[in-house]
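Whiteboard transcription, Tuesday session. T.W. wrote the C-alpha cells on the left side:
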C-alpha cells in the first residue's frame, strides 16, 4: 500500500440530521464546555488540514466550508454521498457531530488502517454493529451511495453489501487502546445526561 503520508485525506463532519429525538439541534448543545459542533471540528482539524461540514448552509454559515445533501432527506447515506461527491481526496474521514468521545488518535488509527487496503470503506465494528459515521471512505463509494439513494435504499449497511469494506474489529480497537465508549452517540436528552457522567 502507498504510505499514509502520500495519501491525501480530508474530513467531513456529518451534521445534517433533524435531531428530532433531542428536541433541538444536536450540533449546538453543550458538552464539557463546548458545543458538539466545535468539539468535533477541533478533533477533525487535528487529523486533516481540510474539514467540511455536511449540513444546511444557512445553519452552519460562519463555521467553515459547508456542503449540502444532493439527495435531501435521505438520512446519513445522503450526507456521505454529498461529502464524497465534493471530494477528490484518496481518504475521506466521516464523523457524526453527535459522537463526542471520538479522538484524533482514533481517527488517525482508522486512516492508517485505510491506507493499508484498497477497500472502499474502512469501518469500525463494535458490539452494537458497524460504525459508518466514524469511518474512512474512498471516493468511489460515492457511486455506490448514489445507486442506493436512487433506489430509495437508505440504510448504509445495505450499501456496504457486495462491496469491498475493511472492518476494524472490537479486539483490534481494544488492542490499540480504544474502547466502545468512543462511539457513544448523543441522540436524546437521556444520552446527554449519560455522556455528562462519562469520562472523556
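and on the right, the sequence the group agreed on:
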Amino acid at each position: 500500500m502507498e504510505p499514509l503520508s502520500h495519501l491525501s485525506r480530508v474530513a467531513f463532519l456529518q451534521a445534517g440530521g433533524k435531531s428530532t429525538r433531542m428536541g433541538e439541534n444536536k450540533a449546538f448543545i453543550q458538552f464539557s464546555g463546548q458545543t458538539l459542533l466545535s468539539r468535533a471540528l477541533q478533533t477533525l482539524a487535528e487529523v486533516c488540514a481540510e474539514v467540511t461540514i455536511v449540513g444546511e448552509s444557512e445553519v452552519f454559515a460562519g463555521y467553515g466550508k459547508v456542503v449540502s445533501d444532493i439527495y435531501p432527506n435521505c438520512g446519513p447515506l445522503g450526507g456521505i454521498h454529498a461529502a464524497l461527491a465534493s471530494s477528490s481526496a484518496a481518504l475521506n474521514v466521516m464523523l457524526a457531530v453527535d459522537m463526542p468521545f471520538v479522538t484524533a488518535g482514533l481517527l488517525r488509527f482508522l486512516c492508517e488502517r485505510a491506507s493499508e487496503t484498497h477497500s472502499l470503506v474502512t469501518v469500525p465494528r463494535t458490539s452494537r454493529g458497524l460504525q459508518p459515521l466514524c469511518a474512512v471512505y474512498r471516493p468511489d463509494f460515492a457511486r455506490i451511495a448514489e445507486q442506493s439513494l436512487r433506489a430509495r435504499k437508505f440504510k448504509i449497511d445495505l450499501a456496504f453489501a457486495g462491496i469491498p469494506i475493511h472492518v476494524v474489529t472490537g479486539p483490534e480497537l481494544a488492542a490499540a487502546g480504544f474502547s466502545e465508549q468512543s462511539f457513544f452517540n448523543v441522540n436524546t436528552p437521556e444520552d446527554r445526561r449519560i455522556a455528562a457522567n462519562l469520562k472523556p
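Someone added at the bottom: The helical segments are 36-45, 57-60, 76-85, 104-115, 141-150, 156-160, 170-175, 189-196.
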